Amino acid sequence: MVYPSKTNRDTIISATLSLVEREGAEALTLRRLAAEIGVTANAIYRYFRSLEVLVAAAADAVAKRLHNFVESSMANWPPALPPDQRVRRLLMLHGEFTTNNPSLYRILFSASREAEAELPTPHWRGQLFLQSMNIIAPLVSPSDATLATTTFWSLMHGIWELRRAGVLKDKGQDAIDDYAFEALIRGVHR
Question: Quick one: 44 exposed, middle or buried, by C-beta within 10 A (0-12, 13-18, 19+)?
């Protein structure tokens, strides 16, 4: 059994993500996680007040991972890429992350705002939104950037969640993504 001083916040979050990736978010309990790490559940409480705050910290770590994935992938594209193509690339990257990390994606939006507020800043879910807004903003007026980004996120994450749930199985997933993207771009240019 590892003593509490031999574990830390990062180890707990890493073990949380590992457990979620292997067995899904429904397997996550403080007792199960403590057993994974080799500590008592009370040792986890030293770092996280509740399971809800731990889930928020895990979601924050996933948001940071997705943010960094998008940032490094976008850096490999020409800076002169037209804005609508940059948005299409953003859509593809989020979709790729979602497809390759379904359990982590699921936890990304499961944290409550109240629990997230207890985390150190920056809050990566917010940073992820700002990253998307910076890519989408050149297509719209400055006053519409937040609304356009919220609409983009709602549309895309709704599609991906329906896909994850199997609702869109055998429905031409690429065609749905392309249609949604084209509808969004047409709406923005209107």
Answer: buried
Closest Cα partner for 19 from 7, 31, 9, 8? 31
- In this prediction, residue 190 has a pLDDT band, given cuts at 50, 70 and 90, of low
Residue 135 and residue 73 in contact, taking contact as beta carbons nearer than 8 Å:
no
Q: Give the pLDDT score at 170.
A: 72
For residue 88, pLDDT over 80 is answered with yes
User: Tell me: the pLDDT tens digits for 161-176?
Assistant: 887 778 877 777 778 8
Contact yes or no for 77/86 (Cβ under 8 A)? yes
CATH number of 59-189: 1.10.357.10
Q: Do 115 and 50 meet the contact criterion of CB atoms below 8 Å apart?
A: yes
- Identify the residue whose tokens are 């924050």: 60
Cα–Cα distance for residue pair 116/53, rounded to 1 Å: 7
Q: What is the 3-state secondary structure (H, E, C) of 101-163?
A: CHHHHHHHCCCCHHHHCCCCCCCHHHHHHHHHHHHHHHHCCHHHHHHHHHHHHHHHHHHHHHH
Domain 1-47 listed as CATH 1.10.10: yes
Average of per-residue pLDDT across 121-143 = 90
